[in-house]
Amino acid sequence: MSKVFKKTSGNGTIALYLGRRDYVDHVDAVDIVDGIVKVDPSGLNGRKVFVYLACAFRYGSDDLDVIGLSFRRDIWIKHIQIYPATNGSVTKTPMQESLLKKVGEQGCPFSFQMPTNLPCSVSLQPGPNDRGKACGVDFEVKAFIANEPHNPDEAINKKDTCRLIIRKIQFAPANKAGPKAEISKQFMMSDKPISVEASLEKEIYYHGDPIKVIVKVNNETAKIIKKIKISVVQLANVVLYSSDTYTRDVCVEEFDETVGANSTFEKSFQVTPLLASNKDKRGIAIDGRLKDEDTNLASTTLSQGDKEMLGIIVSYKVKVNVSTSSGGLLGGLTGSDAAVELPLTLMCPKPAEVTDVIFDPIE
């Protein structure tokens, strides 16, 4: 069952209705954003009613706007005139049919089809002392009363508008076999290598689930392995005017494991990256949230090949680091590390399909 979300303009002339606020990016297509705007013609005074869907990147809080600068850039925006209607009879979705039965004749349906190269709703976690809205990507559906849809010279009164923030999200596809990587490394004063192989049980892990990392070591040297460190690293590529990549460790676990000289080793380790363990880390990418609801670390961004995208593109990797020490008089001077990296896909599971709508609008 799905509840209806509603926002009414300050003057009560228009009201925006959406059957949901999460829209899924299936990589090759995105869910249609469909809704209803209830219009009271008596309050229009000859003006028209428009609705737009905008994807924007916010890179500064509103309280920084002290000299007329905008800290928000529209990545994509589309306007539709819904009253008076301009395109005759419109094919309605089942969601709109359900809403129109409750709203009545004053309901005006609208639909938007987002392109597949838009980013998902992701924001960068602010620091403990930061104020205002977080830097990130958001999507907004806004209905407004005006003479023209985008005339910069026309001042639109805030009381003539109503808006709802929505999210564009991705869910995990079917799982596949996990990745595997290996490295063979030689060290100073040793003519034989240490070989390290790491693998994951599956390709995709859900937020909050422990990640099982299988580590195999073939130590052909005289060195002694003293420690194995496993890290989950988040890479957030912020693509706007330029491309900047922010790298953050979101989980680091160290295991005291001894692998003797000229011996082999195999063991499974578990690590669990959680947002709760990174609450004070500024710049961690998190999934977009609606109001003050809980969220999680940002999901991996899925895309089609070389499709160009703006916004925040998120990926993860698991790094396995084996630390060695030769012992004896030189000790740490001849000790070295061998590291291997694996790609990790971290996502949310796909929820159950919504089959019905409860008309109890949430303002």
Automatic annotation (TrEMBL):
Residues 190-351 form the Arrestin C-terminal-like domain. It comes from the Eukaryota. Keywords: Sensory transduction, Vision. InterPro entries: Arrestin (IPR000698), Arrestin-like_C (IPR014752), Arrestin-like_N (IPR011021), Arrestin_C-like (IPR011022), Arrestin_CS (IPR017864), Arrestin_N (IPR014753), Ig_E-set (IPR014756). One of its GO terms (biological process) is nervous system development. Pfam families: Arrestin_C, Arrestin_N. PROSITE patterns: ARRESTINS (PS00295). GO terms for cellular component: photoreceptor outer segment. One of its GO terms (molecular function) is G protein-coupled receptor binding. May play a role in an as yet undefined retina-specific signal transduction. Could bind to photoactivated-phosphorylated red/green opsins. PANTHER family: ARRESTIN (PTHR11792), ARRESTIN-C (PTHR11792:SF19). Belongs to the arrestin family. This is Arrestin-C.
